[in-house]
Amino acid sequence: MDYEQVRAVDSAVADALEGEDSRQEHTLAMIASENHVSKAVLEAQGSALTNKYAEGYPGKRYYAGCEYADDIEQLAIDRAKELWGAEHVNVQPHSGTQANQSVYFATLEPGDKILSLDLTHGGHLSHGHPANFVGQFYEVEQYEVDPETGYIDYEGLAEMAAEFEPDMIVSGYSAYPREVEWETIQDVADDVGAYHLADIAHITGLVAAGVHRSPVGVADFVTGSTHKTVRAGRGGIVMTSEEHADDIDNAVFPGGQGGPLMHNIAGKAVGFGEALEDEFTEYAQQVVDNAAVLAETFADHGFEVVSGGTDTHLVLVDLRESHPELPGGDAEDALAEAGIVLNANTVPGETRSPFNPSGIRAGTPGLTTRGFDEDAIAEVGDLIYKVVDNHDDEDVIAEVSERIDELCAAHPLYE
Ligand code: DSN
Q1: Residue 126 Cα: closest atom of ligand 1
Q2: Cα 282 to Cα 208: distance, rounded to the nearest angstrom
């Protein structure tokens, strides 16, 4: 992008902005929660709507001058309803975590009980970690994945629910590579009289495209992020039935937020419009196909792939079997030096600190956006293994880095 105006007044910020553009162009973004939005989404997010206050909802604002804010928010809502088939959508949450916060606020009292997946097994901070407000305001118990298969232990979940009698069961995960059985969890929630929140932050795009089954119309509440696999403006979203519509709207504003970030909502509207095009379904299918190839490539090299593969956009590797002396954080550093940007991640049965855990998590949404197909992804899988296996060999890292430069040049961003 051209930062002419910024440079004229602030060269330090212009340098950093240009540096970030260059970093994204010349490295492989494989953090599973990241993607590259279109120039149209970037432009909408950079619009003058950043100046506008629009507390309230379309047609019911607390400020004058909201006519275009109304148009934008209504477009985002209507497109989201069409994309996910939801009865009611709130597009104002500033993030996925704040979308989750609104659901808790709408349904629970402090001290109520939440049953959610353990963070080290693929859950999320906002599902009940003690360091997060959720772990502090509510009583939380956590289910796990089956240690043998790596799949959600649905029977264990049902047993825990019967014992714990939660008010809310949370499904949907941030480091879980398998398709989620929403109906099974809904049945458990119904049996114990709990609400069910399905957090599809990572897989919003896969669900929208129909390449992962949808919890919309199954779970009481569905939350998501809008900038991950669905590749729209940055932020969160809540979907629910008409029955809970007012409670959710009141919990988002004024319950948990003030003025909506209208420029981000414009980015959401544009991105949702793009996701309604046929090409988006092809994109989402390619994301999943690429991840399957990445998992196979890793397994062929001898990496232990959690759950044995993937149905989604991400692959989780437990390094303890193949590289017992190499924590994930050290692997992350070596890969970043070579130009492959992914993250160290906790794994089921974690034995190390969350600051330098035992696994790495790799996702395909970003590379698929820049046109990587199965062959290119298989080569990236080979290169990842090569770096991890030679993490302290500067010559190997330099050699891989050169190849990453070539791959980036062959798959340019923002042409
Ligand atoms: N930070 C996101 C992730 O990487 O999974 C979740 O919020």
Answers
A1: 7
A2: 12
Q: 360 near 274, Cβ under 8 Å? A: no
**Is-contact 201 174, C-beta < 8 A?**
yes
Torsion 140-197-146-298 (CA) sign: negative
Tell me the pLDDT tens digit for each residue of 274-284: 999 999 999 99
Asked if the peptide bond before residue 412 counts as cis, ω within 30 degrees of 0, the response is no
Specify the 3-state DSSP secondary structure of 113.
strand
Report the residue among 30, 33, 203 best suited for mutation to probe ligand 1: largest number of ligand atoms under 8 A from its CB. Answer: 33
User: Residue 415's pLDDT is what?
Assistant: 74
Kindly give the residue spans of alpha helices, DSSP state H, lying in 48-132: 67-84, 96-107
Please, what are the domains in the chain?
43-275 (3.40.640.10), 287-410 (3.90.1150.10)
Q: Is 174 in the pocket of ligand 1 (CB under 6 A)?
A: yes
Q: Is 229 in the pocket of ligand 1 (CB under 6 A)?
A: no
pLDDT value, residue 47? 98
How far does residue 332's CA lie from ligand 1's centre (Å)? Answer: 16
Q: What is the rounded average pLDDT of the residues 137-158?
A: 97
Tokens (6 digits) for 59:
């047609």
How far apart are the CA of 190 and the centre of ligand 1, in A?
29
Helix axes 374-389, 394-410, angle to 10 degrees: 160
Encode pLDDT of 341-396 as tens digits.
999 999 999 999 988 999 999 999 999 999 999 999 999 999 999 999 999 999 99
Write down the pLDDT at residue 252: 98
Question: Vertex 100, ends 344 and 40: CA angle to 5°?
Answer: 75
Which whole number is the average pLDDT over 325-335?
98
Residue among 98, 174, 313, 345 to mutate when testing ligand 1 (max atoms within 8 A of CB): 174
Q: How many CA atoms lie within 13 A of 212 on its CB side?
A: 31
Percent of the chain topping pLDDT 70: 100
pTM: 0.97
Q: Which atom of ligand 1 is nearest to the CA of 225?
A: 7
The alpha carbon of 354 and the centre of ligand 1 are apart by a number of angstroms equal to 14
